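Hi,

I'm pasting everything inline rather than attaching a file, because the server keeps stripping attachments. The sequence lines come first, and each chain or strand is labelled.
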Amino acid sequence: MENLLYVGKSVPRKDGPLKATGRAQYTVDLSLPGMLVGKVLRSPYPHARILSIDTSKANKLPGVKAVVTAADSLQIKHGFVETPRYPADQYPLAVDTVRHVGEDVAGVAAIDEDTAEEALSLIKVEYEPLPAVFDPEEAMKPEAPEIHPNHPKANEPYRNIGGKTETGWGDLEKAFNESYLIREDKYTCQMRAHGYLEPQATVAHFDYSGKLNVWTSSMGVFIKRAKLAKTLGLPYGQVRVLKTYVGGAFGGKIDLFHHEYISALLSMKCHLPVKIVYSREEVFKAARHGQPLIVQIKTGVAKDGAILGQEIRTINDSGAYHGSGVVVIFLAWGFAMAPYRVPNMKYEGYSIYTNNLVRAPQRGHGAPKMRFAAESQFDMIAEELGIDPIEFRLRNARKPGELLPNGDSVKNFGLIECITRVDHRTDFKNKYATAIRERETDSKIKRGIGIGTTAYFGGSLIYPNSSSVIVKLNDDASVSLMTGALDVGQGCETVLCQIAAEELAVPVEEVQVYAADTETTPVDIGSWISGLTYVTGNATKKAAAQAMKKLLVIAAEELKADVKDLATHHKEIFVNHSPDRRISYAQAIAASIAKNRGDSVIGEGHFRTMKDEPTHPSLATAKGRWTENYSSYATVAEVEVDTETGLVKILKATTAHDCGFPLNPTLVEGQIDGQVSMGQGHMLTEALRVEKGCVINPSFLEYKMPCALDMVETDYIDVITEKYQKDRHYNTKEVGEGYVSGTVAAVANAVYNATGVRLKQTPFSPDRVLDGLEQTAKRKEG
Amino acid sequence: MKKLPKQLISLKVNGYEYEVAVRPNRTLLEVLREDLRLTGTKEGCDDGSCGTCTVLLEGVPLRACLCLAVAVQGKEVTTIEGLAEGDQLHPIQRAFVDHGAIQCGYCSPGMILTAKALLDTTPAPTEQDIKLAISGNFCRCTGYNKIVRAIKIASQNAAGGK
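And the predicted assembly:
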């Protein structure tokens, strides 16, 4: 690595002091003069026809300033994906039919919360309940009630198909015929909440100039502007979405949420600011949650463990509308084929409409489920072949430079190195063998070790596709960085400042970020497809480099020297070998203003991933380039299983990760720790329980997320495969979401190693573990 | 719905005396955030399960969402706004910032105040002491590792006179 001043260093996060002192303003903290309290009336039925809505009493209640229903709206549908194959399928306020419990039917704005609540109770809605279906496999049967009768059918012969991804390559039949061993298994994962601590919240103010100003707890302001403008029928120039600090998102705050639309519509009716904040119960019962997924996987291998072919079928319960269901079935294919060579493949993914809540992406978006399935099966196959889990993976892991079936290259892919190094660091093989020997001892506590691996994409082409950044030097040579990026806690503002500081050789403390305002900052890809550090980071690098170049050109003129002979130190530019000839940055800026007709030194940078690709890959066929940068990870989990209580404890998680290179090591570690914790929740305790479409454990008391006493010891191994260089763009890979899967898969395999119990359904709750132990014991006796 | 009449109460928050008229059913959290505009104290669940709204009452951690404002009259309340002196961060805040213990920051005010109460009574806590003390404060971002470490470092710095 070159001699770097700021990039690659653990610079403390820029917003740390604001957050530590309680001064950072989140959407929930906003208060504007005259602001009203907004509330949403929701459907109590999973599927019903709306016969009538009477809002007259609510409208007359003193203190109520606005009431809205679909009749007040333009009735324009929207969707997470809007393509000819998957047209928008969801109204922001229900028109004629509700398709899930909690669907938005009406909104009110009133002077205080009590009045708003009372107004909701005065709205009379007459429903005619319709038959409903909640299980995706039931919903596929011909006799199931049809949830979207007029929706274009993605594919027959099943019912309620919201989306289908179908792809494959090679000759699978031949591969299976030649296989020494074939295994077929079915795995299922539960629905989980995102668990962001700041609830969904929006403040909308349609002011008298005709502009809609929106502050909302989200993952990117430009996507929100696009969806609000479309559904409200406003031009982009009339919708301004502004930054607030975001109290966690994890995938759950992307796409249009209806309270955002409703608060805007209410404000358009009364010209006063309207604030809607979900209660925690509302978050659990009505917001979007993660994707439960069923994965059927059939794998054929040669005697030496080489994978010859795979047939995979995934079924996603997308809930009442598409949400991100049509995307997760595409992504699940990607997470199956990216880390390991699969020479012959048939993949079918179905996204099924049901009368459940709509789904959002959730950290990893399908990867934890796919890797749980594939990696559990890998270990089963390896055991049957008498190969150890490490060797099996090394035999099949993709090597640097390999081309994927969609045309992507994995480039400097570090998976093999990750597996090798995590194996050595944890003394894997020794501990693995010991655990198997000790299964037979009398001890009630069993220990085990397991490995899980992942590859993950780093940015793809989906609106807004690209990022632009402006870097402005001020008279005193301090730096203003304008970016549309919204920091959701991962620390992107800090990383972008580090890059600007590096390029301009100014102290990172002197770079000030102005972020996430659709009006005053340039477009940004957003904090939601794992491409921000790559895309916005490179745009920042280009913008800062351009400003630096301008500065050097004017300095060369002033010093009567050649640009290539100049060097910088402490915000001064001097001539190499003649350090007396020097000029400060501030003097150079003043010279530029004086001599270049007022050019105050501003740099702009733009970056788009996959510059030669027109659009994202086909969700239907998976054809087309997906991403430029594949991260890889190998995780080893060490667990303890109490065979009397069925309780699983994760003792330690060691991750070897190839994120290219860490731009900020502390932030990278923070991402990994957070994902271990999420993987832990996925595997052990978190599950939303749903009855007839209604979440019946809608509080943190009944939905158990990991607390500090559950903390898992973590260890990290940096596998460096890329570098930061001057005068060219850098490659970096994601580190924000792929790793959840490594934890999930590693824990599943470690529990097996400890106990001999192979569970195929998450979470591994005590009752499932005990049941597994009982069945394993019976099999042995039988 | 009939509203209860307001009462005039006196609240001592971060060393200041505030006189506010509140209805007796309003929580300390609501009054801090809405009447006094001290929005550093966050709401996460409204049922006492997440710890986000933690403040100190006479130095002891308290969930402000479970406590009525009228019940703490005359007692000293400390919120996150009362910790730093101007731009000078409290040593625990400093340690959180410097050692990666903050990501989205939503749990940080409650977490930092809980840590302060711990270090005030247990200046040299073990790792288990720290985990136990903050076990009622959820953090979804960090997995707790860097928070526990930051609290440990803050305690060591205090012992070393830093």
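Residues 154 and 160 of chain B are 10 Å apart (CA to CA).

If the labels don't parse on your end, tell me and I'll reformat.
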